[in-house]
């Protein structure tokens, strides 16, 4: 953020650092050579005095000195023997009133044979490390270079992650036809009517002592009556096994194994259209035996609901049992009838969705009796909000390897994937109404999936809320705050707030403000400010989403194109090396919201 709302304007503001905190040097860098220069911004334009303090771990402050006036950092001691290590030190800046401090990470490379300094890119990593999951995410039919422009109209299928295709099971009639054809071909090859077989004549002409014994004839006479029964006892079970495998195999080849769950979501469209029978009529198409679920531990919970990590198995729990990890959403014992109806409404919304790489997929359900279970795919890395907040420490202290750290293009990719998922949901006539980082899940290869359809509405261009309940006020559009009107365009507003969450690594919008202050300020025209480390091109997309007139906001298809343009660029639109350690970025919960009595949903 450009300003701190929790700073009293009567006090002098501290200096703000404006340089890249990761410093690259070689172990044979000569003593006295300058390696970088610290820059700061001071609102009052005070004279800045610089200094260095030791770090708490892997301290490297003894190897460097800083010019207290210019901010230039020089090598003070030889770095010989430190090649391949990461060192840390604190850099401080004092404006005569307040002192700001930031931790810098020094990456020391090993010397080359010729003793030359290894020249690293300025913080940019090689394309193979910056976004090495690009092909996995996009699943292009041709290899995409690192950052070329991409076509605007990318087919939906190009975003599906690569999935292993299960070999098709030969159907019963195909199997019989194949046997008949092989038998027929064999007969056409071996049977020759115009050739006389003299083997019987030869047998009769053999000397008596050389003729074989006729025990085989006796064996044949015994086996002939019982032979058909033996064949039936072997052949019929084999055919039954093939038939069972065929009927329990789904045509959907997702990341999870739906062979445990006997029906895929597509059967809903074939059996439930205009049935007028509600959930109970169509539940059999999705039902999974609840005694085949083994509850492991809670993934998350709210006032009335909870999500469990479960193991689903296809029969008795034996060594040969086929199992799969799933997420199961259910209600707590204190839930009332309204919460039960809401859960069934959420189930009905999820049933109309086809599998999409950026939307959590419903696998099955248990609705024949209480408690109701929604069985969904398990997404291992949890909520995007926590995933982003946890990455702050990695960025500040360099605790992860470079290819594991979040990069600018990762953040753009998150926004792009969510826009793709919302583009699909809006095409299905679904209004999500609760689009926020807490309702986005992160899977393998940094793939984002939209989740939690508890507030979603289906097949309604405009929805007017009339019931009571906690609301996501900080993510709601101005027309939703004033008139309780929700449309796809109000989801677009929420998407702009979600982009701001991504850029600020999980910060709560309008930090330091109460819910009533948010409603008042937004109605008066206030919008979230541009973060200091976010470039104008990225912020403009957010700002377009917050237009007072819903008709002037972009569609999700347009947002996909805008983000695709940023994703295909070489520029860093989110400069994570400039992510500030000060202000309210570390304030994840606004005051008064921790006790849950604020009336808003966070």
From TrEMBL:
GO terms for molecular function: ATP binding; calcium ion binding; transmembrane receptor protein tyrosine kinase activity. It is found in: Membrane. It catalyses: L-tyrosyl-[protein] + ATP = O-phospho-L-tyrosyl-[protein] + ADP + H(+). Pfam families: PK_Tyr_Ser-Thr (PF07714). Residues 293-567 form the Protein kinase domain. Keywords: ATP-binding, Calcium, Disulfide bond, Glycoprotein, Immunoglobulin domain, Kinase, Membrane, Nucleotide-binding, Phosphoprotein, Receptor, Repeat, Signal, Transferase, Transmembrane, Transmembrane helix, Tyrosine-protein kinase. InterPro entries: Cadherin-like_dom, Cadherin-like_sf, Kinase-like_dom_sf, Prot_kinase_dom, Protein_kinase_ATP_BS, RTK, Ser-Thr/Tyr_kinase_cat_dom, Tyr_kinase_AS. GO terms for biological process: cell surface receptor protein tyrosine kinase signaling pathway; homophilic cell adhesion via plasma membrane adhesion molecules; positive regulation of intracellular signal transduction. SUPFAM superfamilies: Cadherin-like (SSF49313), Protein kinase-like (PK-like) (SSF56112). Gene3D superfamilies: Cadherins (2.60.40.60), Phosphorylase Kinase, domain 1 (3.30.200.20), Transferase(Phosphotransferase) domain 1 (1.10.510.10). GO terms for cellular component: plasma membrane; receptor complex. It is a single-pass type I membrane protein. ATP binds at residue 329. Its EC number is 2.7.10.1. Residues 17-123 form the Cadherin domain. It is an enzyme of class 2 (transferase). Receptor for basic fibroblast growth factor. This is receptor protein-tyrosine kinase. It comes from Dermatophagoides farinae (American house dust mite).
């Amino acid at each position: 953020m450009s300003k701190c709302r929790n700073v009293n304007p009567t006090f002098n503001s501290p200096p703000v650092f404006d340089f890249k905190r990761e410093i690259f040097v070689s172990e044979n860098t000569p003593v006295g050579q300058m390696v970088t220069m610290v820059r700061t911004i001071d609102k009052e334009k005070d004279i800045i005095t610089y200094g260095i303090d030791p770090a708490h771990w892997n301290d490297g402050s003894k190897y460097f000195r800083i010019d207290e006036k210019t901010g230039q950092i020089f090598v003070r001691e030889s770095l010989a023997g430190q090649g391949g290590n990461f060192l840390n030190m604190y850099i401080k800046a004092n404006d005569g009133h307040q002192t700001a401090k930031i931790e810098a990470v020094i990456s020391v490379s090993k010397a080359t044979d010729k003793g030359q300094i290894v020249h690293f890119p300025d913080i940019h990593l090689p394309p193979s490390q910056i976004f090495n999951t690009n092909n996995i995410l996009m699943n292009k039919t041709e290899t995409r270079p690192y950052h070329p422009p991409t076509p605007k109209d990318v087919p939906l299928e190009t975003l599906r992650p690569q999935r292993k295709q299960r070999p098709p099971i030969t159907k019963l009639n195909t199997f019989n036809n194949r046997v008949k054809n092989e038998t027929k071909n064999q007969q056409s090859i071996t049977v020759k009517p115009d050739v006389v077989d003299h083997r019987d004549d030869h047998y009769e002409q053999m000397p008596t002592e050389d003729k074989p014994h006729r025990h085989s004839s006796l064996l044949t006479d015994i086996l002939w009556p019982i032979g058909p029964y033996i064949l039936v006892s072997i052949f019929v079970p084999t055919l039954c096994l093939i038939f069972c495998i065929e009927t329990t195999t789904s045509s959907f080849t997702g990341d999870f194994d739906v062979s445990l769950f006997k029906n895929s979501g597509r059967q809903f469209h074939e059996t439930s259209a205009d049935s007028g029978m509600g959930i109970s009529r169509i539940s059999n198409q999705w039902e999974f035996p609840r005694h085949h679920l083994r509850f492991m531990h809670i993934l998350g919970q709210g006032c009335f609901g909870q999500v469990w990590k479960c193991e689903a198995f296809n029969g008795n729990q034996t060594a040969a049992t086929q199992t799969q990890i799933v997420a199961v959403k259910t209600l707590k014992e204190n839930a009332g009838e309204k919460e039960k109806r809401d859960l069934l409404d959420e189930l009905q919304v999820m049933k109309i969705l086809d599998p999409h790489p950026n939307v959590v997929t419903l696998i099955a359900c248990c609705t024949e009796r209480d408690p109701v279970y929604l069985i969904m795919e398990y997404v291992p890395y949890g909520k995007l909000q926590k995933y982003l907040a946890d990455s702050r420490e990695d960025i500040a202290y360099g605790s992860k390897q470079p290819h594991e750290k979040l990069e600018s293009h990762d953040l753009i990719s998150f926004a792009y994937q969510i826009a793709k998922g919302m583009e699909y949901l809006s095409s299905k006539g679904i209004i999500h109404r609760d689009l926020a980082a807490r309702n986005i899940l992160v899977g393998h290869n940094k793939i984002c999936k939209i989740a939690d359809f508890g507030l979603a509405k289906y097949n309604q261009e405009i929805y007017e809320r009339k019931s009571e309940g906690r609301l996501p006020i900080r993510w709601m559009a101005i027309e939703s705050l004033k008139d309780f009107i929700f449309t796809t365009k109000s989801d677009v507003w929420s998407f702009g707030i979600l982009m701001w969450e991504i850029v600020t690594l999980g910060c709560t919008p309008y930090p330091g403000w109460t819910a009533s202050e948010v409603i008042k300020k937004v109605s008066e025209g206030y919008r979230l400010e541009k973060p200091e480390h976010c470039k104008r091109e990225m912020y403009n997309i957010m700002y377009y989403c917050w237009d007072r007139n819903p008709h002037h906001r972009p569609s999700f298809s347009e947002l996909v194109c805008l983000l695709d343009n940023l994703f295909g660029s070489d520029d860093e639109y989110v400069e994570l090396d400039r992510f500030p350690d000060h202000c309210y970025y570390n304030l994840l919960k606004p005051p008064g919201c921790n006790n849950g009595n604020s009336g808003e949903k966070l």
